[in-house]
Amino acid sequence: MVNKSKKTGNFLATIFLAKNRRGSHVGMIISFVIFITFIVFLYVVVNPAVNTGQNQKTTLDYIKSQILKNVSANFTSASININKNQGNNCVRLQNLLFAMSSEIDYYYNAIIKNESESKQDAYRGDVGTGDIGDLKINRNVKDNVFFKIYFSPEFSGLATTTINCNQIKEGEDYSIGSITTGKYIFENSIYKFIDYYKTNYEKLKTEFKISPGAEFAFDFIQADATRIDVGEPATTANVYAEEVPIQYIDNQANILSGFINIKVW
């Protein structure tokens, strides 16, 4: 005869174990739901910050390219060799400027230096004397026979003069050496851009097609460490910045090193 008390105990134990299993499954489901909820919450909180940082980096790269484009201009250098038998200090290189017009369209905007990189007094001919396409160089000393001519629309145009100089011809008395042309950053262009930023900031943003709500500023650090600050972010702004090393050309055709520090927020 089976003990009823024992049967009843086994039955209750089975029910208890089933309930424990069910409770365990429910607990696991609840824990999983809490975990997923936490992950979603963390993503929602962190993702805007990540997106904002990426957006700022994209905006900064774009503004950097626009600034560098706006402060750069064409720059051409040409070397000139004069035969040593040319005895006068002042020489007139026949048709040199007109010859350069086949290379560039800013051939009157030039700075001339000797091989020691000292700037030389130089002029273009006068239309009244029929030598308008000639380049006149006061060499100071007769031993100066090698010159570099730097052309750029950022340089002032050569003045005309009626000074009578010894005329020399290409091929016979002088030769044009290597000619190189490229885009370079100019100090004067940076100053112009700074003035435009200060007086037309909103218009500049529109021209750059910068998204509403985005702002930018920059600093120009010159070769002598002089710093020009242009614009200032709000103290509460989340600022993303990059310091860009540059080489720039001053108004004496010297190549200098500096930085442009760009900030977006």
Structure description:
- This protein has about 260 residues and is an alpha+beta fold.
- The protein has 4 helices and 12 strands, in the order H-E-E-H-E-E-E-E-E-E-H-H-E-E-E-E.
- It has an 8-stranded mixed sheet, with helices on one face. The protein has a 4-stranded mixed sheet with strand order 4-5-2-7, with no helix packed on it.
- A hairpin with a 5-residue loop joins strand 11 (about 240-250) and strand 12 (about 255-265).
- Mean pLDDT is about 85; it is low at about 45-50.
Helical content band: 25-40%
Count every helix, treating DSSP H or I runs of 4 or more residues as helices: 4
Structural class: alpha+beta
Report the average pLDDT across residues.
85
Topology order in helix (H) and strand (E) letters:
HEEHEEEEEEHHEEEE
**What spatial form do the alpha-carbon principal axes imply?**
elongated
As an assembly, this protein is single chain
Record field, number of beta strands: 12
Mind describing the biggest β-sheet? 8 strands, mixed
Write the layout of secondary structure elements.
Elements: H1 4-70, E1 72-82, E2 90-93, H2 96-100, E3 110-114, E4 121-124, E5 135-138, E6 146-151, E7 166-168, E8 174-186, H3 187-199, H4 201-208, E9 216-221, E10 227-230, E11 240-249, E12 255-264
Parallel strand pairs: 2-7, 8-11
Antiparallel strand pairs: 1-6, 1-8, 2-5, 3-6, 4-5, 9-10, 9-12, 11-12
